[in-house]
Every structure is written in C-alpha cells, then in structure tokens.
Input
Amino acid sequence: MRDRVGRTVDDGSGLLPSDVLRRTGAEVAVLVLLDPAGTQLDLIYSVGMVPELAETWARFPLAAPVGISRAARTGEVVEAGSFRERLIRFPATASLPTADVEGLVAAPLWHPDGDGTVVGALSLGFRGHVPPGTVEAATGLAAYAAGRVRAAGLRHGAHVPVAEEPGPPGPSPVATLGHGPAVSAIDQALLETILLHLPVGVSVLDRDLRFVMANQRAAEINGRPAAEHPGRHLREVLPELPESFAEQLRQVIDTGRPLVNLDVVGPTPGRPGQRRWRGSYYPVHGSTPVGPVGIAAVFDEVPDEATVGVEQLTADRATMLTALDTLVENAPVGVALLDTDLRYLKINPVLAAWNGRPVGDHLGRRVPDLFPELGPVVEPLMREVAETGAVRDVEVVRAGRTYLSSFFAVPGGGGRAGAVAVLITDVTSRRREERRARRVQEFTAALSQAVSVAEVVAAVRDGAGPAAEATVAAVALLDEAGRQIRFPPTGQEPPSRWKAVGRDAVHPIAATFRADEPSFHPELEPLLDRFPDAADAIRNSPHRSWAMVPLRGRGTAAGVLVFGYAEPQEFEPARRDFLVTLAGLAGQALARAQLYEREHATAVRLQRSLLPSRLPAVPGAELAAVYLAGDAVGVGGDFYDVFPVDGAAGREWVLVVGDVAGRGVDAASVTGLARHTLRITAALAEPATALRQLHVRLRDDPDVDRFLSVVCGRLRLRDGGADLDVASGGHPPALVRRADGRVEVITVPGVLLGAFPEVRLGRRSVALEAGDTVLFYTDGVIEARGPGGLFGEERLVELLRDAPDSTPRQLVELVRDGVAAYQSGPVADDIAILALRVGG
Output
C-alpha cells in the first residue's frame, strides 16, 4: 500500500511529464519562473541540457533578448521555426548553451487563478524545424506546469504581460551578427568598418519607413549626416522624392518580395536638381510572425556622364571590386559565384581546397562536371534560387566532413538574378560536438533510469561507446568474493579470455583496477610488451587501442570500464578527461544500483519472513497464494495468513489478507504485530470482533503510528460446501468465482484499523458450494497503473470471469501475470493474493 499522506514537491522533476521530450519530439525542455521581484527568471527545471550548461541559465533578466523571456514578458507564444529564423529574431542566443538547437517554441505560464498575470515560461527546442502542432502542445504543457507549480507551493513572482511594438532595434545589426556562429572567426570591428565605409549606400528602415541606420555613403547620397537618420521617416529625410517610391517600399513589406535594381529620380537636400540612384530593397524578417519588420536597402548614385567622366566612373567601380575581391579571397569561409547557367565564375582558395581542386579547374565548369555526386543535389536548388530569389540552405557530408551551404541570388539587370552566390562553412566540429553532447545526454538519461546492475551495464553498452566514439564499451566488475573481475554477459565483451580476470593477474584490466588509475593504450605494441600473458588475446582482438578507467561509486573501485577502438587513438588530455567523466557517471549509477540490489534483497528476505513458510492443508478445500514485492527499497506491509480454529477438528479456518501503510522497519513491525494478534483473537472470536481487538491494540500502543487495511474470514466447512463469514477494515472487496463462471463482489463496510479513535465494522456471510473459489488481494492489484489508468476492480472481475476452470494456483498466477502485463514500467507496489477453492 502506498502512503496515504500527501507530499509536497521539492524540486522541478514533477512540473512537467517525465516523457516530455518523447511526447513533443523536442531536444530540450526548459521551465523558468519569475523571481518574487518580477524582474528575473529562475531556472526551475530542464531536461536534455548538459548540467554544466544549465548552470549558465540559473537566473537571467526578464528583459533578456531570448525567446523564453519574450514569452514571459508579452504573454505570447513565441515560435522560431528554424535556426535561421531563431538567429534573426533572437541573435543573442547564438552564443548561448542552446545554440545547437535550431527551432524553438516558448509559451507563457499563466497564473492558475486566472488573474491575467504570467508567472514564468516554458521553452521547447528542436534539433530541426518545429513540427506541426507544437504550439498547441507547448500551450497545454505550460498550463499543466502552472498547475503543478501551484500544487508544489513554489514561490514565484507575477508579471502583467505587455505587448511589444516593433520599433528601432537596440544593438547594431552588424554587432549582433558578429556574435553568430557563421561569422565567429571574423572580427566584429572589421564587419562594422566594412558596412559603414562601403562605397555603396546601405540603410535599414522599419515597417513605418523610419530609418534605423544609414552608413556614410547613404548619408552622402541623401544629403544629411548619418546621425540625423535614425528615427526619422523617409519623407522627413527625403521630402521631395516621388510618392510612388514610398509605395514601392511598402509593397516589399506587404509581400515580402525584394525590389532589385530599381531606379529613383529626384532632388535631395544635399544638392539641388534631379539626381538618379539605383538600388535593391530586401525584406528584413524579425520578431513578428506576420511578415517583415523592415527593409534593407543597398544603393548608389548613377552619375550623369556629362559631369563625371567615364574614366572616373570606371576607377570607382574598379576600387570597389578590388575591395570586394580582397574580402572574398581572404574570407575564412568558402565562397563561389556561378552564372545563370550554373558555371563557376569565381571561387576562393578556401572552397577550392575543400573541393580538392585548384581554383583554375573550377572556372567555366558546372558542378556535375567536377563532382557528379553533388550535381543532382545542388543544381535544382541553385536554379530555384536564380528563378525566385529565395535563400536556400543545404548540409552536405563529403569525405567525412560536414559543410553547411547557403545559396542566394545576385541581382542582375531587369529585376532578374545575374548570378548565384554560395557561402559554405565547415561545421564538422560543431556537428561532432552536438552529437557528442546529445549522446552524453542520452547516456546520462539511461543511467538515471537504470535501477539494477544489469540495467547499468546495458546503459553503458548502448550509451558510453557511442558517446566516446568507441567500437565497444564494457563493464568489468569485481565479484562478491573479491578475487576476480568479470564481464557480465552483454554480447559486446572483449576477447573471451577476458571474461574473467584474476584480481592479481598480470593483465591490463587487473593492473588498472589495482592501481585505481585510468590507463590508456594508444597502440598495441607497448601493451603486448608489458602484458605478455595476454598477448594472444590482444592480438586476436579487432581493436587497436584501449582505454581502461576504474569505476568508482562510493570512494572505492567496483570495477573497470573498458573502451575499445578499431583504429589507433591519440588520447589527448581533453579526451582522457572526457572518458574519465563517462566512467564517473557510470560508477555513480553502478554504486546506486548495487546498493539498491542489496537493500532490495534484504527487504525481500525480511518480507518473506513475515509470511507463512507454507500454506496448511485444508481438508475439503484447496489453497494457493502469491506474493510479489514492488521495486521500491524497503520491506512492504502486505501479508496473508491461513490457520485453523482451535478445537474445531479441522472444520473451521481463518483466512487473513492485510496491507500496512508505508514501507520499512516500522511497517514490518506492524505487519508482524497484526499477524500474530489475529492468530490469537481470530481463533477465539468472530472476524469483526477480532478486527476490533486488533484496532484497540494498535491505538493503545504508543510505539505504533501506522494504520492498515485487512480482511478476515472464518471458513466453516460442511458437506458439499462451506460458509464464509467476512469482516473488513477498509480493505478491497473479496471476489467469489462460482463454479459456473459467474463472479460476485463481496463488499463489506468498514474503516481502516488504527487510523481513527473509533472503528465501525460490518460483516457478511457467503455460502460456497463445491467448485466455488474465493479470492482475497491487496490494493497493489487494482491500483496498478497502465495505459488505460488504474487496473481497477472491473478489469479484475472481467479477468476472473473470462478465466478457464482453474485451480487456485492457476488463478492467482493468472491475476499476477495479468497485472504485470497491464502495468507500465516496474511494479510500484507490493501485491498479495490468496485463493481458496471449495471441494478441491
């Protein structure tokens, strides 16, 4: 029986469903609550995030420019469907621990009282794009978490959400871009300088056509200082421009489509008379899901050749091309330019080196000519980019390295694309670290769920190897005698001779265990020289490098974690530290599992001592019982007993099944007290009287603070059948399965014994005929939880009704197996079942 005392949640583990990542398909789930002042957000719960990284999120401002803060500030559900969208809307997160997450959804936690305030927020991060239906799922999880916060009594602040209007952005767009992973190798100051001093005009306007920024060349063209642009409307800066120009810019915002190579003619404040400039205007997507938040403009004046000589114009353009050429040639990323026939016009040395061909081999040739395997992948993508002007990203793995490629159109004449540009970044290291972090998280999660030593060994086999990029990971444990180190059978052990190694043997595993220090063997020859007795096994192994790390749990080594590699390894210091960390996680889980198994075995032995060693033989009837210990540590309180009534010549018997609240030594002592008390009282008095006497015994004993449910029946055998008098103290009703298959529920009123000052108990008599079976059980049967909720009394009745004509032994095993098959996960509560069949 589980404790009937309510418990307060004291950490965040119950605020979200334990399988929240499986339900949503998310990689990371984060839950934050407002601090009492309502200005900071505190991390309450996270799953899928490495603990060391989660520490950086322990507390951060409500005003932080990240998605989860925005949800808490505005009360809106925030969705960034991809890495590109997240980087544009929340660029500050590019250097934070969740940067490996691409799409995200954040939902506010509304106060459970419905007072219109927000108490925190929930964020789900996804490895790729956000799946359909995630917004609804996040909203439901946020409501669930808010209710659990109230139930747990966690302290928090409250905030009245305020909608955020699009306005001039705070930090410089270039400064923000400088924090992104795609340009982390480029100096931020260089980017600022390039933007501000480009020989072409660059400016950014918001949705209301107010300037956000303008570089020096734009200020010169517009005839106003750069500082006078931010915050002013286009008409304030350039009042005499044609109204049609402003309408065309609004179409960019309304449609999200760029305007390429648009000529504008009109006077500016800087110089009288008609002037002409040509520009391209692109939508800027930001924090609003309804469309662009502004416009980025790139333009330059088209001078009158009557006043500016062709030589000067040519020189200016040559200077600009030289600067751009220098930037492309020295960029730390791959850059290529292809014409509309998709032939290489230009490629920088970095990309040429990645392709394994000189720069000259590329020029004038198409991708399929050089790399036939890439043609079907990238050529259709580049044609789409050239035709639509869309930006497309694709990730390609070549020769063991991973490249992220971005394709975008370069404007040409007549509003059409003149070329296709490609930017390629080597993300091999990033993807490798992402995989390693994900595997470590999976390994840690598997260890946290492992209860037994066998489950820890399986978690190491399945998780430690991939995390360490090893071909095999196996656990060798010291046996109970302390003489041998043995590999549990997992199917991935090292060579057969290593399955059992003497503790004092001249062997690398034994030497590692004795030294209690990790050993690393990058190559086999030194290992063969040092351990000649193991030379044959080492040579016959398919592995060419080994790492062996002691498994420490509670201070002393319990075994060795062995990693094998098919190729020689370097084992540099950082990698050695990582393998030691994996072994530390496994060692802690192993120590916990070993302690659990020892305590569980002790509890089971103690529990067995509280039950009859064997059931008596009842003339004219057949008995069977089964007891199943739950997975919780500590002896439980379930018990059963059958004994004769003195002086009845074997014609009268007492049947008892009970369940003491709680677990542990106190529950065991009450179990023993109840069983022995009933052996005395029930043998002399009717069942209801015997239970009342037990209740008084429990209430009068100052050392007893437990209560129990119990059912007691006196069986009186007669020719052709029996009569059963039943009394119950708050116990589940007994069931009678008649010889014809009908099932009757024997409900008897009564309250828990020892729980209240006074106890009221009823009684009921049941006539049993030959072939009838009575079944007593504890609440572990009907309270077993599975996919359809509790197992319940109705499901138990149906199980008995559908059972074939069975012996009591077959019947109790049928109930036990039916509950086990229905239950999700391990057995949570103890189960005791007792069956008696008349005429057996």
The chain has 26 helices and 34 strands.
